[in-house]
Batch of 2 targets.
Target 1
Amino acid sequence: MSGVLKKIGKRKLVFAAMLVLGALCICARLYVVGVLLPAGALVNEAALRRISRQRELFIAGSRVRNVDYLLIGDMCRATDIVPAGKTYVQLAAPGRSLAASYEILRHTHSILKEDGGCVVLTPAGGKSGYSVYDVPFFHTVTVSRLGLSTLRKMQRLPALFAPWRTARFLLGVAGRGWRESECPKREITDFCAERSIVLKYMCK
Amino acid sequence: METGLVLGTGVSASRDYDGLLAVVRAAADSGIRCFDTAPSYRTEELLGKVLHRAMEEKGLARGDIFVQTKIDAWQMQASQGSVEPYVRDALEKTGFDYFDSLLIHWPLPEYLESTWESFVRMRQAGLIRRIGICNVRMRQLEHIAAWEPGPQIVQIERHPLRTCEAEVAFCAANGIAVQAYSPLCKMDERIRDSRALKSIAEKYGRSVGQIVLRWHMDTGVTPVFTSRKPQRVREYAQLDDFRLEKDELAAVSALNENYKMFLESWACPGF
């Protein structure tokens, strides 16, 4: 039985359970709950799939390698920043802080082409800390180092724990007016220099 | 390294006793005496049981086989580099008194030096014979090779789509043995369907896999390959009776795209 459950996938089961529960609520004339539950489950599933697609770029088997640009940070239009004809990977989430952007950089920079790959950081101004949209990119040693085990559990329900960010994430609401500036964190500048990564820091 | 090939027990290996025993028997019958594992593969204990059985069957002494394991990133972090308890635990699990080789699996920067110091102490104490490191690029190699003592073995992802010429040349110049994991890049279609490789394979009456493994050995690298099939192990072990010529080696190397399957930073934050 557990093998069958594993095959179906925990996530799909929870999603299906939400739909069934919603239907039951409607039958019980709890119309608001009956609509919100499956709607919330759909939104949550959509967000998880989008994050999954981003993560899949980095696992063995992905053909995406040696890219020219890696964009990490708040939502922005990649075409505003990446020159035409250049390959890029964008890891954007609403309100992503500089600290989170740096941690994600530490996990993902090997996807860049060696010598000359460019990282563009577009952190959300005035934001700090980590969100359910950052933790999916973190190795267990990072989760342990930063004390994010609770956030790691919450990452399965971004629609519940970060509803506004989830809405912006799915709608692709991208900020504009990005301009290049000096990276305020020396650690990041040094990190990139040691690895021959060109660093561009953008802010609004 | 006494033999030209290492049998790996990583993610593609058999996880059941009979399956792994059949593969190890085939390896032992074919002259392969080197075996690789790691805590993250969850095959350490199983490999130990299988090797003891195979040794008994084939009349092999401990000194006739080469057993290599690794220290994983979480172990480096949890112990802040003092990894000896994990190694002792692995020795107990495998039933051996020593490991022929111990490698740092991922060079987690915060604990690299302290872990290396721990390796050196364990070597002095006789728990391990050789020490080394995996998943390094030139940046780390130049730094680590200056350590005293430096690594004796380096294990990297290497195959025709990623030839690591700089790393291989550096290690050769510094007396460091190089092992290649994923030596066939999981038979990526760019390798499997390569006209150049098929042509060379046809000339020697061999498979593409055998040609690629021979290329590794002829360029001074020991391939670490994994298979669940005993017949595949026997096939890949039959490499001693031919050598690739210079232009054939160049043709294989020309497939290089610097394509890396396993991104180091993804498994080793801060790489």
Target 2
Amino acid sequence: MTFRWWRRQKRDEELEEELQSHLEMAASDVMERGEKAELARSAALREFGNVGLIKEVTRDKWGWRWVDDLAQDVRYGLRMMRRSSSFCAVAVLILALGIGLNTAVFSVVHAVLLRPLPYRDAGKLAMLWVTDTRSVGWAVSDGSTSYRDFLEWKREAGSFGDLAAFYKRGWSVVTLTAGDEPAKVQGAFVAANFFSLLGTEPELGRTFTEEDVQRREHLLILSNAMWQAKFGGAADVLGREIQMNGTTWRVVGVMPEQCRFPFLDVKLWAPLTTNPFEEPDPNDPLNLNRPQSVARFQVIARLKSGIAVRDAQAEMNTVAARLAREYPDTDKTLGVRVWPLDEYVTGEMRKPLWLLSLSVLVVLLIACTNLATLFLSRSVARRRELAVRAAIGASRWRVIRQLITESALIGLMGGAAGVMLTKSAMAFLLALVPVNVPRLNEVRIDPTVLAFSFLLALVCGVSFGLAPVRRFVACDSQELLKTGQQGAGGNRLRAEGVLVGAQFALSLVLLASAGLLIRSFVDVLEVNPGFKPEHILTMQLQFADPDAVPPARISDYYQSALMRVRQIPGVQAAGTVGNIFFWRRTGIMRCGK
Amino acid sequence: MKPRYQNRIELLQGTLDLLILQTLRWGPQHGYGISLAIRSNSGDVLQVDTGSLYPALHRLERQKWIAAEWKVSENKQRVRVYRLTAKGKRQLDSERSRWAQLSDAIAGVLNPTKTESEP
């Protein structure tokens, strides 16, 4: 017979039977010695000893006793909770808020910072970001390079398995015409190896081939969002046509939802050579011979396996130095930074997110100390019961385990409630987060987040269950039973004092930090932008096909539009501007006449 | 999992195991029979109470020194019969030698051999 736990029931019965048969045999022996039946049995029983105790001790030998005990503790704990249901409801509520908050923040931290990017072997991807020693103050270089330099990198750099170029953001905004209303949309113009470098497969259709790029085919790959929005997720979207910048483009593929490269809000991809902003020159499709001062490409690269970022950076430094020597008029001040993709995408968010996590942990800590005080005062009411338990033979450890089981139960219930709270409020919470937090689309409650919440709930439950335990350990049960009063109350008051003090301290820390952050925010709001932003409205104008309209007509249009706007009642003055201040990264351009 | 000794007899620790294993050496036996055998072989001196016997039996079974199965006795009763396993036999031998060593040692202290320096 094996000692498997699930055979306990059977083993119990067998033990019973074994002891019974022993009893029978002893009784019959006694009868043989000449005593009467009932006397025989009672004599045998006396010899036998306490059957119940024997069974219990024997059962002990089987091991697995702790499972029985745990089940017993849990049942008892549930009964106690039902008895003091209002206390439990309050405790669970407090804990649910604390844990729900932590679950929400952790799900964001997990999706944004901890999980790898949704591309193949994302740890090996890096941006090759151009740095300019001339960049001073806030005129930050946008990391873009010329195609010539890109080709040089591709030829020289041995640390990278593959490099792909794409037009930078400002050069990739396209105008779609659907029906009458033209709309500006963020696109991306990418090389043929772009998607294979990333390692994402299209959800529908295919990606671009070298031929597509060479022949400057007007093909499009849509993002999942655009597919849903414009075509309602229809399965026959391949081959459909879209009007973009005055010409017809054909859809050849759809990318899955998590592919948000190279820009967070990219809606469609097109081949590199089809960029409508480039002046068409059939002999020089990528305008290699164009003045190189307008850097308009950004580059993503995949490190070869075994090569560290440090080594790649060293190599790129030498390459950049050589280019600076060879093309001094354009590249003299330029360097190249190998920027790992995960830092590039989420780098800005690291500090704020960790700060947020810390703050909500402190909130949870406050909730726990609060609950510890509650449990402490509740234990005073239960001291009689605990004393009785101790008196009838429960070991100290057993009673402590009982208390901890109860509080762990409350912890787990609070955790479950918290997770459900977060789940239902997820949409609302995500709406509160600023839009430019990367990878927000990947935030969800997945097993890791659940495990985290479960662990947190358990730890919290056990920790505030420990508060009354210490006091219990020190008490004298004899005295308790007799007088119904705790001997020395000083200990309890001090414990409560410490807990309340801790709560105050933590709350003050949170309040102070919040105050400082709000202060900074107010300061930012009050920065003088150099003009009066009150009572100013802005609007964007776009043409369905800007290239088809002769410049003279454009300026006529603007003039008449301006005149009409000035005539609107309430308008004091109106004007036009190329780029609005403070909108993304603005430069000031001087327009030729 | 290490078994914790909780024998309640007044014998030295571990001797109950020895007695049980030795009893079973003569052949398989059920619990009642074992306690009878120990009592009679010790001349009614050692009366193992059942509160110690059955926990010991189950502990020994757990350690695979004895094995048990249900049999039907002559009185048509179902009884659980224990027998010694090979492992148990080895354990018995080692315990016997340990016991012999122990009793020699104690005897040596109680009856010290007279030295030459006796006047």
